Amino acid sequence: xxxxxxxxxxxxxxxxxxxxxxxxxxxxxxxxxxxxxxxxxxxxxxxxxxxxxxxxxxxxxxxxxxxxxxxxxxxxxxxxxxxxxxxxxxxxxxxxxxxxxxxxxxxxxxxxxxxxxxxxxxxxxxxxxxxxxxxxxxxxxxxxxxxxxxxxxxxxxxxxxxxxxxxxxxxxxxxxxxxxxxxxxxxxxxxxxxxxxxxxxxxxxxxxxxxxxxxxxxxxxxxxxxxxxxxxxxxxxxxxxxxxxxxxxxxxxxxxxxxxxxxxxxxxxxxxxxxxxxxxxxxxxxxxxxxxxxxxxxxxxxxxxxxxxxxxxxxxxxxxxxxxxxxxxxxxxxxxxxxxxxxxxxxxxxxxxxxxxxxxxxxxxxxxxxxxxxxxxxxxxxxxxxxxxxxxxxxxxxxxxxxxxxxxxxxxxxxxxxxxxxxxxxxxxxxxxxxxxxxxxxxxxxxxxxxxxxx
Length: 455
What we know:
The chain has no helices and 35 strands. The chain is mainly β and 455 residues long.
């Protein structure tokens, strides 16, 4: 059936217009995360003012963080060797540096250095969810030698690492970035993203490349990402990950670099911010030109290489309402200064982009969808005067009796999961596996995601 979207019971975010057939007086709106507390100050002797390339993920009952410890005092020409460092937390807010006793710094192993060697510049681990992965290789990582390529590492505990192979697994690219990989449970493939140069090397743009593998050793030829309607810009990192609530959708948070701008007095020119993008195949992306994270009022964030979003989206409890979960992401600030640190940001669950209507109201209609389940659940927010109404149509856009907007019980408030109800109830069982179109009428409201569930 032409244009029918088979969504089953999966969560669908409105990060793009994949489900949207018609829009009137509504638009897709990018939302910005809110800055929260500083979670890490990079002030240990083996760290310094150029720490970065942070990775954060949940591993059973703890959260793990990996980052580069490095210092580059451009005024006094003071440097030290780069290390991969490790921290952990039980709440993703308060972090500790365990004494790992693995590698020496200035004669002592009392530190949190987790790797010292090739790849320390941008050592980026992940937990391998491949059910066939070897126990002794359950944790994997990538790190580069810029002159040679991208090396792979493995570990059985996330602390003690070794080289996977003594030669690089990927050699086509630039690699001076946070290069990363993960296992895609839907595609049943390892997926990798790294930096490259488009349009003729150093005269081109810093760009993102991708390749895939069945075994983490043999990789496809790298390809550049394609963007639907956005011109080329310098993208330094990528922070791409399958969204854990909807893993068929990839989300990315590149650090955008504007090399020709020089806002503060600093020897290294350029300014940076964080942007947002999404994809349903991992190759073609919708990338927003507006910033996801702006440098803001802090002058140290207007120095080159700041506002770098860490790789990893973490679910945390809201401080405003502990009964509700929200999302935490992390971004660097104070790079090249004595204030080099990592700040936590929060955004509502699924809240990256919404279909938004102002106080005058508007509506949109989906393409025909096939669903499982028996109820429609929405993630939304309205003002006190705002509302949402939902109509259900057949694929010819005729209302199904009992499910018109006039039959819908008016929806207003703010909820991550609210069941849509009509005067006849909320049961959509009889419409299951039949193509239907959904009509959403919004007034001073945001709709972030929808899902059909069995309730």
